[in-house]
Structure formats: structure tokens, C-alpha cells
Design a protein that fits this description.
Belongs to the class-II aminoacyl-tRNA synthetase family. This protein has 499 residues and is α+β, with helices and mostly antiparallel strands. It is built from 16 helices and 19 strands.
Length: 499
């Protein structure tokens, strides 16, 4: 009896040897008039379908039902007159293929032993039965190679390294159930977001990813060049300014789910390329958009896990239910620092506090000091979902002033598990004030702030035609999956950018 299993780690030489052997098998198939990669196969059922229909079959039972099924070989055991293979479908479900001398004949059985390898895609036709051990099986009358694997699979009984999981996600999907589950979870979450928006009469649109002027967020863009237009272009950092143009045009409830690109650092919560949701609701404000955001996330949690209480990859349960807390940025910072901090606090006093706490602030302004100090004192305490409300005006150039609170704007950031999941505004719709804010941002850019916004005359022209009062929000889809699954950002992205 022979049983195939890949060693924990193959050397480069061993991989090259296996590749040479498998290429020779491919050549033999072709030389004998067979196909190593046939276009069509007489498949009549899928592995999940068979498991759903016959999964409770008693041991050593026959159904009399003949099917044609295909899957990837993930386990292979050959004996004298009977060979076994575990075939795996894309969702990870498996069925056993049994190839016996009595059913296929000596020549076919010998070719099986000589040609079939772990990793091959295989087609078998035969009766659905249950083995003496009670394993759902296909007793093959015919088998064919559906796709010959030239490289070996990794060991299916050991953990892939994080590097391999990220760089060769296709192997991760074959080997690891959690990887497949994450892809399914993401699809369910995005479908839920769209369904929730539809229930509130939002329209989904698409806006440009190549832009002549970057804006809509404080971030450093990727720069490229258009040969057709002979001009410098930017990969968008946010869809905000175009979605607001749509609102000017009368699309009162609008959203987009698409890609953003930011030429910045990469870590456990940041990726240079990421999926972003942004939405705008005319005649709403940052409170109504906070309510909507909570509903979006809670509905997504139910879609993925069946409950507001989600179970993370490490087994921890996390409750996303209930009404989430709303916390004042200035008040929470004052409480934790022991110093009363307001929009009127002198810059020198903020600088002294930052120096004492070892907080570094690049291109210091009042708002940058307040936000960095808040992160230092408060951010790490926010495990449960919390809307952090009311930000400094100079770091939020697209946000409406808070009535009766000079220097503060109606903005929130939503924190979950200590990281920022979403942000929302009462949007600034006065074109005169918006122009003044852009001019102040341009001054910061001149001082070397790579994240400052530029003066966007086209956007201002749209605003001057009348932009309705509105609330708006943005949320990273990858971070939403982090909150639901407990995984890092590179695990929630199917094919993340790696160096």
C-alpha cells in the first residue's frame, strides 16, 4: 500500500524533481491520446450537492444512483486492488473516490497509480455508496484527469506560514477552511450592505478612480500619467467629492463601494489599496448617518454570523448589538489627561502636554495636537463600538461647524476594538466657507503636508449650484471584516499587496 502526503517543507530541489515527474505524466497523457486539461466533462452533480443529499447514508450502503463528479485530489491512498482519493470542492467539502480492479479493470487501475497525484483535479463517474467505515464515496466506473497539477500541494495537515498565505492565497484557500470562510463572509457582508442601503432608498453609483485632482480625505495619493491626455493623474484617495456632485445633481441618497488607493504605510489595519464604502444622505446630519452606520454594521454581522454576537477567528465572542456609545473627543481627552482642553487651549499648552507624554506631531496645528493626544490618552480604551464625536475644525475641512461650539465640527469616528472603522460628517455645503477651508489646506500643503487637500475649483463650482444639507459616512470594507472576524487586514483582503 502507498499513501501520498507532502512533507512539511519541500526544498527547491525537491519541488523541481516533483515538477519534472508531473510534467512527464502530462506528456504521457498527451502521447496516449488523453487530455491533461479537457474542455468539458460529463459532470452531473457537485460534491456539496451529494453531501447534502446522501450525507446521512448508513455504512456499507449503496444507492443505485450513478453520478459524474469532479474535485481536487487532497488525499491519495493506493493498495493492490483498491485505490482511494479524497476529492475536495471549492467550498472545502469532500467525497471519497474508490477505484477498484473489479470496476475499472487492470489497465485503468494501473494508469491511476501511475498518473494521479495530489493536487490534480479529477473526474470520476460511478455509483454513490457508503464505505464500510461509513464514508460517503463514489465507486468509480470511469475516471479522468480534469486538470494535471504540475506543482505539489503543501502539507495539508500543517499550518501555512503567514508569508505563504498572503503571497499564495490560492494555496491558502485550498488548505485552510478559515481562508475560504473569510471570502464567503466578505461576500455576505457586502451583499448585506447593499440590501440595507436599498431598504433606505439609496442608489449605488460608480465614480472615477483616475482623477486630475485628489481630494475627499487627508491622505497622500499615488501619482500616475495619462499618455492619451498627456497629463498627471492621481489614483483616488476617496470618492467623496464626486458623490457630492451627484447629490448636487439630485441623487439625494447615494453610495459607492469601490477601491481607494493611499500612498502611505502598511500595517495590521492599513493597506495601500483597500475597498471603501461611502454614502451621502440629503437632509441628514452626523447623527442620522451614525444611526445608519450602526444599522449597516449590525445587519452585516447578522448576515455573516446569524447574530449581533460574532465569533472571531480565535474563538472570542464580540457583541456588536445594542445602541453604541457616543463620546465627545474634547471631553474624553480632558478627562483622561487631567487637563481641561477646549478649542481655545493655547498651542503652547498643547505642545507642552505632547512633549511631556512623548507624543510627536508633524506640522503642528491645534487640531493635530488634539487628535494625536486623544489617540495617546483615549483610543486604546475603546474596545466596544463607540462613536467619537465633535472634532477640531482645522483637521476636518469638509465638515460643517457645530452650532454654538466655535472651533468644533460635526464629525465622528467610529472605533471598534481600538481601531477606526468608519467616519461620518454633517457635510459642509456652504461654498464660500468651503473655499476658505481649501485655501487653508493649500497653505498646509505649501508647508510640506503631503496629506493636505488641494483647491478644487470644479468641486466648488458644483457646490455653488446649491448642495443640500446632508450627512455622509465612509467605512473600509476590509476593516468591517476585521470587526466581524477578528482577523488582520491582510487576512480580510483576498489578494493583498505585498512587497
Amino acid at each position: 500500500m502507498t499513501e501520498q502526503n507532502t512533507p512539511l517543507e519541500l526544498t527547491g530541489e525537491e519541488i523541481a524533481e516533483q515538477k519534472a515527474v508531473r510534467l512527464a505524466k502530462r506528456e504521457r497523457l498527451l502521447a496516449e491520446g488523453d487530455e491533461a486539461y479537457p474542455v468539458r466533462l460529463p459532470i452531473t452533480a457537485t460534491i456539496p450537492e451529494l453531501r447534502a443529499r446522501y450525507g446521512e447514508l448508513e455504512a456499507d450502503a449503496a444507492t443505485g444512483v450513478e453520478v459524474g463528479v469532479a474535485g481536487r485530489v487532497v488525499h491519495l491512498r493506493n493498495t493492490g486492488k483498491l485505490c482511494f482519493a479524497a476529492l475536495q470542492s471549492g467550498d472545502g467539502s469532500r467525497i471519497q473516490a474508490m477505484v477498484s480492479l473489479a470496476e475499472v479493470g487492470e489497465e485503468s487501475l494501473q494508469r491511476w497509480k501511475e498518473l494521479v497525484d495530489l493536487g490534480d483535479h479529477l473526474f470520476v463517474r460511478g455509483e454513490v455508496i457508503s464505505s464500510r467505515r461509513g464514508e460517503l464515496s463514489i465507486l468509480a466506473k470511469e475516471w479522468r484527469i480534469a486538470a494535471k497539477a504540475i506543482l505539489p500541494l503543501p502539507n495539508l495537515h500543517s499550518e501555512l506560514s503567514e508569508e505563504t498565505r498572503v503571497r499564495q492565497r490560492y494555496l491558502d484557500l485550498i488548505v485552510r477552511e478559515q481562508a475560504r470562510n473569510t471570502v464567503v463572509a466578505r461576500a455576505k457582508a457586502v451583499a448585506s450592505l447593499r440590501a440595507t442601503f436599498a431598504s433606505h432608498d439609496f442608489l449605488e453609483v460608480e465614480t472615477p478612480m483616475l482623477q486630475t485632482m485628489h481630494g475627499g480625505a487627508a491622505a497622500r495619493p499615488f501619482v500616475t500619467h495619462s499618455n492619451a491626455f498627456d497629463t498627471e493623474l492621481f489614483l483616488r484617495i476617496a470618492p467623496e467629492l464626486f458623490l457630492k456632485r451627484a447629490a448636487v445633481g439630485g441623487i439625494d441618497r447615494v453610495f459607492e463601494i469601490n477601491r481607494n488607493f493611499r500612498n502611505e504605510g502598511a500595517d495590521s489595519t492599513h493597506s495601500p489599496e483597500f475597498a471603501m464604502l461611502e454614502a451621502y444622505q440629503a437632509y441628514g446630519d452626523y447623527h442620522t448617518i451614525a444611526d445608519l452606520t450602526q444599522e449597516l454594521i449590525q445587519n452585516a454581522a447578522v448576515a455573516v454570523s446569524g447574530s449581533h454576537v460574532v465569533t472571531w477567528a480565535d474563538g472570542t465572542e464580540f457583541d456588536l448589538g445594542g445602541d453604541w456609545a457616543r463620546l465627545s473627543m474634547y471631553e474624553s481627552l480632558s478627562e483622561r489627561s487631567g487637563i481641561r482642553i477646549t478649542p481655545e487651549t493655547p498651542l503652547a499648552e498643547l505642545a507642552a502636554l505632547a512633549a511631556r507624554e512623548g507624543v510627536e506631531v508633524k506640522l503642528p496645528t491645534h487640531g493635530k495636537y488634539v487628535e494625536e493626544l486623544w489617540e495617546h490618552f483615549v483610543k486604546g480604551e475603546l474596545e466596544h463600538p463607540t462613536f467619537v464625536m465633535d472634532f477640531p475644525v482645522d483637521t476636518s475641512p469638509l465638515v460643517r461647524d457645530k452650532p454654538g461650539a466655535p472651533g468644533i465640527v460635526e464629525k465622528w469616528d467610529l472605533y471598534v476594538r481600538g481601531f477606526e472603522l468608519a467616519t461620518g460628517y454633517s457635510e459642509l455645503v456652504d461654498p464660500v466657507i468651503q473655499r476658505e477651508r481649501f485655501i487653508e489646506q493649500a497653505k498646509l500643503a505649501d508647508r510640506g503636508d503631503d496629506e493636505a487637500m488641494r483647491l478644487d475649483e470644479e468641486f466648488l463650482r458644483a457646490m455653488e449650484h446649491g448642495m443640500p444639507p446632508m450627512g455622509g459616512m465612509g467605512m473600509g470594507i476590509d476593516r468591517l471584516l476585521m470587526a466581524i472576524t477578528g482577523l488582520g487586514i491582510r487576512e480580510t483582503i483576498l489578494f493583498p499587496l505585498v512587497k
